[in-house]
Write a structure and sequence with these properties.
Length: 176
């Protein structure tokens, strides 16, 4: 019984002394950013990312267009004008090659063959959906997707790191 009482006394003393400051410095509180501060930080990050993409494109000498969402695109090869263009909810068969801005190859369909996905409905990057809608069968294009059009703040938990800009080379092979 004495052991139980002594144990409870020590637990109580530990709990009380853990709450007290040692008297030498006040307890500091961490600054929690306001919504306006977070918005400004996001704007700064977006500007820095756009600048990084602009520098990359200039180094490569690519002539790219930009959509309102920030997707950059360039056609490498155009299919015949008589071939169909991709439409929302169609299934698209594509060959892809995905790299980071530093040139690291992340994914390619060279290993597993072309992939099918439903435009606007599948679980692929929103930038890929947007880019495919610019294409017709037989087109080959290059897309640069900033993080918000790719895998965002977290990456894909496999090969794509958090906040990564992706460089896609895409060939639209078929639609159904």
């Amino acid at each position: 019984m004495r052991l139980v009482i002594a144990s409870l006394f020590l637990i109580g003393v530990s709990a009380c002394t853990g709450c007290k400051s040692n008297g030498t410095q006040p307890i500091e509180t961490q600054h929690i950013p306001t919504q306006d501060e977070l918005i400004e930080r996001n704007k700064q990050a977006a500007r820095a990312e756009r600048s990084k993409i602009d520098e990359f494109i200039a180094r490569k000498g690519w002539d790219m267009q930009q959509t309102g969402t920030g997707l950059r695109y360039q056609f490498i090869q155009k299919g015949a004008p008589t071939l169909p263009t991709a439409q929302y909810e169609q299934e698209a068969l594509v060959n892809t090659r995905v790299e980071l801005l530093n040139g690291d190859l992340i994914y390619t369909t060279d290993h597993n063959g072309p992939q099918w996905f439903k435009v606007g409905k599948s679980d692929v990057e929103s930038g890929l959906h947007e880019g495919i809608l610019l294409m017709r069968v037989g087109d080959k294009a290059r897309f640069i997707m900033p993080p918000h059009l790719a895998h965002g703040l977290v990456g894909d938990f496999k090969a794509i790191p958090p906040r990564s800009t992706l460089v896609y080379e895409v060939e639209l092979m078929d639609l159904k």
